[in-house]
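If you are new to this repository, start here. Below is one unmodified record pulled from the training split, so you can see the exact layout before writing a loader.
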Amino acid sequence: MTVWLNGRLLPAEEARIDPADRGFTLGDGLFETIRVTGGRARHLDRHLARLQASAAVLELPVPYPDDTLAGAVTALIAARDVAEGVARLTLTRGTGARGVLPPADPHPTVLITLAPPGPPAGPVEAVIAQATRRNEHSPLSRLKTLNYLDAILARREAARRGAGEALLLNTAGRLAEASIATLFIVRDGRLLTPPVSEGALPGIRRALILERHRAEERPITPDDLWAAKEAFLSNSLGLRPLLAVDGRPIGSGLPGPVTLALMNDPAGA
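And here is the target side for that same chain:
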């Protein structure tokens, strides 16, 4: 298997990340998950723009310009001869001495990998996580950092409770998002999603749906969810109808017309 590491394509078995890399020791880094279809990375410009914006928040230098990173993703897809898959671009601050203070002169690590697409994700039932909440006051709620422990805790809870996904409340008790996806509901004829200020990650597909389908950002409570006609979860890899939460059906308990229309959107939003 071939990967792209710090400017070079090389076999995965030859790729080496320093044990002192802060991405490994402290989770000091970011990542982007990019869908590959037809041998091309979808919405790559948007992913790179989000990476740059997130890196600026962390004052984490990106060691390559966007055109180099885009070329690296394209080169890896060609080297692997992949038509359908999932690319992951990981950026860390690189090595550093012990302690949390970043080095004054960082040498970041950039790793790009490619994985098979996995089976299609179908309709899902979820629970509202009780073990953890989304901290909408933290700037990290807006970034795809290497620390996904809240999501891991929530998904483990969902599995124990017999569900395939978990919805996370924010500190105010309103819905923020799912463990790895954006929440959308249809209520009173309006397509709604929680604002970023509520703890929602500014997802790529989320932005496309907001732009193209007259969706609105609005705080959403569990009561709003129970009153919704339909709901779905979206991320860069796809869209899933949300049929029930905590054992209670959403709407009819079947994929609704808005969800089905978006799933069949030829533009891929």
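Two things worth knowing about this chain: The helical segments are 22-25, 44-58, 66-80, 149-160, 204-212, 222-227, 257-263. The chain has a mean pLDDT of 96.
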